[in-house]
Write a sequence for this structure.
């Protein structure tokens, strides 16, 4: 297995405020990695660093073995075609219809005719369980859950190898978030994606992650399986996983945790 | 869930290729090989699609030598098949998943029927929209009056800090741009008039011409157009973004009427700042005009200024200030009206801001015409 993401010695600084101090993270191909941490611990900032939306003060970020800093525009463009991002609020283009939102990345390639684009959009809509009568609607007319699923369809339309999910289940009702988790799970199995996810939702975390990266004190305090993460004695981990809510979520999937342990 | 294992590539990944072949029993077979994923197809999709179609439907297909496949490749092949699975097909089991739900991709979007009465409908819709805007403006004005009456009973609860902040933003911060534009207009006007007046030997009338023109008409209109572009758009955009981010709803549920907190301060502030800005713009324009006149016609700045009170009756100044109050309130009212109508999407914000500026400038010009008609015999000395 090859590393898809390599973050080495990363420092992020906004003015005097240090967000990340000498942070290291390596994600292998096919893994599902969850970033967790308290509010303001720099989870989303780390994801933005990996996406090249922020500049590191020090250190390097490599994606698919290509460093984000100092690479040519063509190289960066190649990386950007190989990943898909689901933003927290969906970030659908509000001026475009659902259909055009999903079709946009395909049309930008200028490689496919309109018939192909149409069929591909329909296929992706079906994949995320959106009925085609919604295709002509504008994002403002949709519910939060539908926006998330359509944004996922847009993120997946170029068949990415790497998918970023920022709070994929935040703002969804339990039923919807359950089905969203199932959807991501099945897509991960079918398409053998590498997934990086920021989440606060313990159920999502426990049922999806292969590995958990816990951010606190400006670095990763743990990077490993759920069992390894729980074993670390740190106030954040005690609160997050072994608090009342955490224990409930863990006990609900107790069987699978044991299964993971056996592996 | 364990990490899914990807088969390690045993050999080099080849480019996608289409070959017409014969199978063991001599039947013609279309054999595909290489990588059929987006990375490989991006540059050659059209060529490969043409080759797939020319290879012909109804034959046997051998897809077992495809090294990589994704939905893009599968859909391309599926379309070449005429969106049906062919009878004779050899497919690697791990690629089966990409063909599993391709049926979902077929079918078409509902087509919108052509509307013969399109133009008539558009005209009707535009008329109704204009009436709706008018009604909305009147309603907004009424709401503000009602809310400010309530304010009279509790004057200490008034949004005084907001008004003061708005006066600074729309007034003080606009001093620079209004001065620059006013000065240049004054200079240009003076130069152009000087040529004509010199021809008639009527040099001294430059004072009357510039004085009346700038103080009564140009100063107020130029200042109002600048403020409409500068502050009107800002007000619309601010209220529009507050609509998008649900801040307006947050105010409503706290029981804070946004007319009092947001709109009234802007209208009052513009009604205060606009006459002052007009005074400022006209003053600077006159200075520019006087400087140009002294250069062109030899009328000293000093005699220009001393001649001004005789040429322009002081009532014109009051008229300009009155226009300022009306223009300021109009600009703020129109800007707030369009800001409150913004829908929660980015395109609507752009349209709303454009409409706001265009409408407020038009409203200012119309109001100016009304002023000109009503006060046609006020302040024009024919001595």
């Amino acid at each position: 297995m090859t590393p898809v993401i390599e973050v080495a010695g990363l420092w992020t600084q906004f003015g005097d405020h240090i967000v990340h101090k000498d942070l290291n993270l390596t994600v292998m191909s096919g893994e599902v990695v969850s970033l967790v941490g308290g509010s303001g611990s720099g989870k989303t900032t780390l994801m933005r660093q990996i996406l090249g939306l922020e500049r590191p003060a020090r250190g390097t970020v490599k994606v698919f073995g290509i460093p984000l800093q100092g690479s040519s525009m063509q190289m960066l463009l190649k990386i950007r075609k190989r990943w898909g991002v689901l933003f927290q609020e969906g970030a659908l283009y509000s001026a475009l219809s659902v259909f055009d939102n999903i079709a946009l990345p395909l049309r930008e390639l200028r490689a496919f005719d309109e018939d192909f684009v149409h069929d591909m959009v329909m296929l992706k809509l079906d994949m995320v369980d959106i009925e085609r009568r919604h295709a002509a609607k504008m994002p403002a007319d949709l519910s939060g859950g539908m926006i998330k699923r359509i944004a996922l369809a847009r993120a997946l339309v170029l068949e990415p190898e790497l998918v970023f999910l920022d709070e994929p289940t935040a703002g969804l009702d339990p039923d919807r978030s359950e089905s969203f988790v199932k959807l991501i799970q099945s897509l991960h199995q079918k398409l053998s994606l590498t997934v990086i996810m920021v989440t606060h939702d313990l159920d999502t975390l426990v049922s999806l992650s292969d590995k958990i990266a816990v951010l606190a004190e400006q670095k990763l305090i743990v990077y490993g399986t759920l069992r390894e993460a729980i074993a670390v004695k740190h106030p954040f981990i005690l609160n997050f996983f072994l608090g009342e809510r955490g224990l409930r979520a863990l006990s609900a999937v107790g069987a699978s945790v044991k299964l993971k342990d056996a592996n | 869930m364990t990490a899914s294992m990807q088969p390690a590539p045993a050999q080099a990944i080849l480019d996608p290729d289409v070959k017409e072949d014969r199978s063991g029993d001599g039947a013609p077979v279309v054999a595909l090989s290489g990588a059929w994923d987006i990375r490989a197809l991006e540059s050659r999709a059209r060529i490969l699609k043409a080759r797939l179609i020319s290879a012909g439907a109804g034959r046997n297909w051998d897809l077992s030598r495809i090294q990589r496949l994704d939905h893009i490749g599968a859909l391309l092949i599926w379309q070449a098949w005429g969106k049906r699975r062919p009878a004779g097909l050899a497919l690697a089991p791990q690629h089966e998943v990409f063909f599993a739900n391709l049926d979902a991709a077929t079918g078409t979007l509902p087509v919108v029927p052509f509307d013969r009465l399109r133009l008539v409908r558009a005209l009707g819709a535009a008329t109704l929209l204009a009436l709706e805007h008018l009604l909305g403006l009147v309603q907004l004005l009424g709401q503000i009056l009602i809310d400010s009456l309530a304010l009279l009973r509790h004057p200490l609860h008034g949004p005084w800090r907001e008004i003061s902040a708005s006066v600074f933003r729309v007034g003080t911060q606009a001093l620079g741009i209004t001065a620059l534009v006013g000065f240049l207009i004054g200079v240009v006007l003076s130069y152009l008039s000087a040529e004509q007046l010199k021809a008639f030997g009527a040099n001294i009338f430059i004072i009357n011409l510039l004085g009346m023109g700038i103080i009564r008409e140009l100063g107020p209109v130029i200042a109002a157009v600048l403020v409409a572009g500068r502050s009107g758009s800002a007000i619309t955009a601010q209220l529009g973004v507050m609509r998008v981010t649900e801040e307006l709803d947050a105010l409503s549920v706290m029981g804070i009427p946004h007319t009092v907190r947001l709109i009234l301060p802007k209208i009052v502030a513009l009604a205060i700042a606009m006459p002052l800005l007009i005074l400022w713009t006209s003053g600077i324009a006159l200075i520019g005009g006087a400087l140009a006149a002294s250069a062109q016609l030899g009328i000293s700045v000093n005699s220009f200024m001393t001649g001004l009170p005789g040429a322009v009756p002081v009532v014109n100044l009051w008229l300009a200030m009155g226009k300022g109050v009306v223009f300021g309130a109009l600009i703020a009212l129109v800007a707030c009206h369009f800001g409150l109508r913004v829908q929660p999407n980015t395109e609507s914000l752009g349209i709303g801001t454009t409409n706001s500026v265009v409408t407020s400038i038009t409203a200012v010009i119309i109001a100016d015409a009304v002023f000109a008609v009503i006060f046609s015999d006020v302040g024009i000395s024919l001595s």
Remarks:
- Residues 87 and 166 of chain A are 5 Å apart (CA to CA).
- The domain at 29-53+68-262 of chain A is CATH 3.40.50.300 (Rossmann fold).
- The first helix of chain A runs from residue 43 to 50.
